[in-house]
Amino acid sequence: MRALYPGSFDPLTLGHLDLIERGCGLFGEVIVAVLRNPSKSPAFPLDRRLDQICRATASLEGVEVISFDGLTVRCAEQTGADLILRGLRAMSDFEYELQIAHTNRSLASDLETVFMATSAHHSFLSSSVVKEVARFGGRIDHMVPEVVAQDLRRLFNSPMPNQ
Ligand code: ADP
After folding, report:
1. Residue-wise DSSP of 15-82
2. pTM, whole model, 2 decimals?
């Protein structure tokens, strides 16, 4: 099966990567779809986010990385995805994710959304937390793939992780 994993990925964290890996194991194919959202101002431009994900997933079989804008259900239709994959870290994610899943189902009744629980040791991770730590020069190697860690250090001008 082909799963569509949509998100902002600004930037990709090890939590996202873990979900991609496990999604490949379960479904065979995962299309990581990076949202091009002009109303948000991302820390990393779209091209950079795509490159980060391509590099971090280079050794994984069955991963494709694309960008999209507009409706997720339309992207799923265009890519021939069988399902939408989303991650759940905590109850706080659930309410929002359920609303989106119902909305998508109302637009495309044959498209299922599958939620995967994050690995416990990644459940505290979010792209915003990672950016916040990096901004103040904290250690981020255990939170993001190496390519992202390098980009974050460059972005916040902190070449030496100190904690
Ligand atoms: P969005 O802006 O769509 O929420 P994100 O890039 O923040 O995009 O997240 C994309 C997907 O990855 C969401 O389903 C989110 O729940 C999931 N996710 C975010 N952080 C983690 C994590 N630490 N572990 C696993 N999944 C995660």
Report:
1. HHHHHHHHHHHHHSEEEEEEE--TTS--SS-HHHHHHHHHHHTTT-TTEEEEEE-S-HHHHHHHHT-S
2. 0.92
